[in-house]
Amino acid sequence: MVIARNPDEGSSLGFLLWLPLGDGLLFRTSDTWPRTKALYCHPADLEEWPAEPDVVERVALRSCARRGAAIDVVLDRARENRSQVVYTRGRGRDMVFWQSPRTRKQARPQVRTPTARPGGLDDDGIEIVVDAHERYPYTFGKQQARTVRRALVAGDYGVLLGDTLVASVERKSLPDLVSSVTNSRLRFALGDLAALPRAAVVVEDRWSQVFAQRHVRPAQVADSLAELQVRWPAIPIVFAETRPLAEEWTYRYLAAALAWARDEQAVGTRLPGAVTELSGGGTSEPSTAEVRAWARGHGIEVPDRGRLRPAVWERFRAARLSEER
C-alpha cells in the first residue's frame, strides 16, 4: 500500500491511496489512515498517479483481497494494520469509504433500539409532520408512527394537537451543524423554535467530532454552540451519535411532547407561545404574510419572502397585547 500527497493543491482530498489489487486501484482521500472516522475515498484513474510521487507512507501487505462490496486490507505491521475499503450507495450515488475496525465500531454502536411504544400514547402510535423542504427525511419505519409532509414554521419534524404545533425537532448532520453555526443560520432557527411550547435540535454525530473539523476552528464551533445553548436553555442540542439513533431520539421526544400537550389540554392549561402556522392548516395566530404587512405598515424592514425574525414576531405580539388592554 502506498500513500502519496495529492499534487492537486486545490483538492480537499490531500492524499492518494494506491492498492495492489488487479492492475492497481487508486483513490483520493483526506488522510493517511481512518483513525477517528471513516474516510471518504474518490476513485481515480491510474494516470493521476504522479511521475515523481511525494510518498508519505509505503507499507508491505499481508493481504489485499476483495470480499463482496469490500476490499480487506491487512498491513504487515503491529498496530493499525487492518482496514476495509467499502463500496456503498448514499444519497442516490455510489460512494467509497475507507474504514478501520475502530471506526466501524464507532459508526455502528452495538445497541438495539427498543420497539416498545412510548407511554401515554394510543395503540395507533403518533402522526409526525415532516417539513416539506426536508431532504432525505426520517421515515420512522421501525417506530410506531406515520408521517405526513407539510410546511412547518420551525424545525424539520413536529407533532400537532388539533391544529396547534406543540413540538418540533430540527435535524442536523455534523457538516450542516458546523455550517449553520458559522453563518448564523442556527441562531435564527433557534429563535423560530423558541416560539414553540417544546423544541429541540438533534445532531447525527458525536460531540467529539466537533473537534475533528479541519476547515473551521473547532474552538469557535464549540464556543458558538455553548453560547446558543445558554441563550436558549429551553432548546436542548442533543448529539445522538448516528442517524438511526437520532431518528429514535426524535420519535421518543415528539411522543413525550405530545403526551405532555394532551395532559395540559386535559387540565385546561393554555399552551404558552404556541405558533401553529402550517401549510394548509388552521392557525391561532396571524399568518406570516399578515405579520409582514403589519411590520411594513409600522416602518419595520422585513424580507419579501421566507421566515420573519423572532424580534418581528415579538414586536407584533407586544403590539397586539397592548391593543387588547
TrEMBL record:
Keywords: DNA-binding. The keyword Chaperone does not apply. Pfam families: ERCC4, Lsr2_DNA-bd. Residues 103-123 are annotated as: Disordered. The keyword Disulfide bond does not apply. Residues 127-207 form the ERCC4 domain. Gene3D superfamilies: 3.40.50.10130, E3-binding domain. This is Histone-like nucleoid-structuring protein Lsr2.
